[in-house]
Write a structure and sequence with these properties.
This protein folds into three domains: about 50 residues, no CATH class; about 100 residues, 3 Solenoid (Pectate Lyase C-like); about 110 residues, no CATH class. About 40% of the residues are buried. The strands form three sheets. The chain has a 20-stranded mixed beta sheet that branches. Strands 3-4-5-6 form a four-stranded antiparallel beta sheet, with no helix packed on it. The protein has a three-stranded antiparallel beta sheet with strand order 1-2-7, with no helix packed on it. By secondary structure, it is mainly beta. About 0% of the residues lie in helices and about 65% in strands. It is flat and about 50 Å long. It starts with a strand and ends in a 5-residue tail after the last strand. The model has no long low-confidence stretch (mean pLDDT about 90).
């Protein structure tokens, strides 16, 4: 069996073919189904299904902490295999980076400063299935630009308001953000991104079984492209929308005021709950 989906640090393992996924619920092509929030599943065919709890923020034992300070720039780039991090807003112009991990994690992590800001590259986990070897905690001025590239597992939480989020997930990273002005999200795999509030623009491309949720906001433009069984749920007001679906996934938008270009190919669904201006 292999990992095929994650929801809130709960891992779904199976040798079956994934049909589609929506938040905690997963459906397989043979009629089997699983609910990761309830840790329950129904197996209706050949093959195995297993639900495992994830690391939930825990890391390996025998760790030490090191703190680094950076003065320049307002850009943060995070990349690597396993990527476990928290980003908070600082009260000054200094960006701090706290590294918590094993000796191997400290020796393998790569941190350097550029004119634009800070770059952090984390190593792959040495032994899969065990707790992560380390995590990082950042404190940066509000309005930063955050670039993320992930090729493995991980969880991230961004509590600070940021101007730009540009993220590329090729693994199963789970990210939760508070306020993002401009978001550019690409998931090739089973990653998950939740933005509580988006304020300007949002572009999402899903290839596989990824999941993106935007809780609120008013956007000048929303672009959503799903290839596969992924899902995008945007509870936003969009002045312009481009919604393209190819596969068994889903795209749902709360309200599109102006022009909307929609394409649906496959068994999935494209839903716009309200259109045009609402008169009181």
């Amino acid at each position: 069996m292999k990992e095929i989906y994650r929801y809130r640090n709960v891992i779904l393992l199976s040798d079956k073919t994934l049909g589609r996924a929506e938040e905690s619920r997963v459906w397989f092509t043979d009629g089997s189904a699983a609910d990761l929030d309830r840790r329950a599943f129904i197996n209706r065919g050949m093959g195995k299904i297993k639900v495992n709890p994830g690391s939930d923020g825990k890391i390996a034992k025998d760790v030490r902490t090191e703190t680094l300070l950076f003065q320049g720039g307002n850009t943060i780039a995070l990349q690597g295999g396993d990527l476990y991090f928290d980003l908070y807003q600082s009260h000054g112009a200094v960006t701090s980076l706290e590294i918590i991990g094993t000796e191997r994690f400290h020796s393998a992590i790569d941190v350097y400063e550029t004119v634009q800001g800070v770059v952090v590259e984390t190593p792959d986990r040495r032994v899969k299935g065990e707790y992560p070897e380390g995590r990082i905690i950042l404190k940066a001025p509000g309005g930063a630009a955050v670039y993320i590239k992930n090729r493995g597992n991980g969880t991230g939480r961004i509590f600070s308001p940021i101007e730009l989020l540009k993220i590329e997930i090729k693994g199963s990273l789970r990210l939760k953000c508070s306020i993002v002005s401009n978001a550019d999200i690409k998931i090739d795999g089973c990653g998950y991104v939740h933005i509580e509030n988006a304020t300007k623009s949002c572009t999402v491309e899903l290839n596989g079984s990824g999941n993106v949720r935007v809780g609120s906001g008013e956007l000048t433009e929303l672009k959503a492209n799903v290839n596969g069984s992924g899902s995008i749920n945007a509870a936003v007001i969009a002045h312009r929308a481009e919604l393209v679906l190819r596969g068994s996934g889903s795209i749902s938008v709360a309200h599109v005021i102006g022009q909307s270009h929609e394409v649906r190919g496959g068994s999935g669904s494209v839903t716009v709950l309200k259109r045009g201006y609402q008169h009181i």
